[in-house]
Design brief:
By secondary structure, the chain is of the alpha/beta class. The protein contains six helices and eleven strands. Strands 1, 2, 3, 4, 5, 6, 7, 8, 9, 10 and 11 form an eleven-stranded mixed sheet that branches. Helix 1 packs across helix 6. It is elongated. The two termini are 27 Å apart.
Length: 201
């Protein structure tokens, strides 16, 4: 039985990935799929060492050594304390949050990669504090201590009525998190998985 080893950036969540795997197994019942959730840098370390066949992650500026296929994109959202803005407001410009603390949801070994994403790629001007989990960040934000960022799919999984979700804008334009599949060697099975993923993401 062939095995397809897939590492994914854990902050993207697994909802779409599980759907892709279910559909893929209907076509390739002879392929066993192993899913591994990791931080951004850890995922690419595994791919570089050929410990996995495919990495699903967001597109940044430091993945030049791998072949890639864009799968889709998700809107970036700011999660704030409920009532910070009137209930009719659905969007906020990132510059309006510059005076608030931005919590980076990351384990200690993932902090540098996420700080690079927020500070250098997203150009967020807020002061940053690391938070170990979404739950911890949600508690801090609910108490009015700042905000954190997620894409709209993972943000929709937070069931907390003390929080408010707003689409994040940069100079009036919606901010997007591009999601891509990265690989070193492409075969028919990997190609099929990527084709399915493009339909779901």
């Amino acid at each position: 039985m062939k095995k397809l080893r897939i590492v994914y950036f854990n902050q993207l969540g697994r909802r779409q990935l599980d759907r892709i795997v279910d559909q893929f197994k209907q076509k390739h019942s002879d392929v066993e799929i192993e899913l591994i959730g990791m931080g951004h840098d850890g995922a690419f370390d595994k791919l570089a060492k050929n410990e996995v066949d495919l990495a699903i992650s967001d597109l940044r500026d430091d993945q030049l050594d791998f072949k890639k296929e864009i799968l889709g994109q998700e809107a970036v959202m700011a999660i704030l304390q409920k009532g910070s803005y009137p209930s009719g407001v659905q969007m906020i410009n990132k510059d309006d949050l510059a005076d608030l603390t931005c919590f980076i949801v990351a384990k200690p070994e993932e902090e540098a990669a996420e700080l690079h994403l927020f500070k250098d790629i997203y150009q967020i001007r807020s002061p940053f504090i690391a938070s170990n989990s979404v739950e911890e960040a949600a508690l801090l934000v609910a108490s009015g201590s700042g905000y954190f960022l997620m894409n709209e799919v993972t943000a929709s999984l937070i069931s907390n009525d003390t929080l408010q979700r707003l689409f994040l804008l940069s100079n009036g334009q919606q901010m997007w998190q591009k999601i891509a599949a990265f690989y070193t060697n492409e075969d028919a099975v990997i190609k099929d998985f990527i084709l399915l993923a493009k339909k779901v993401y």
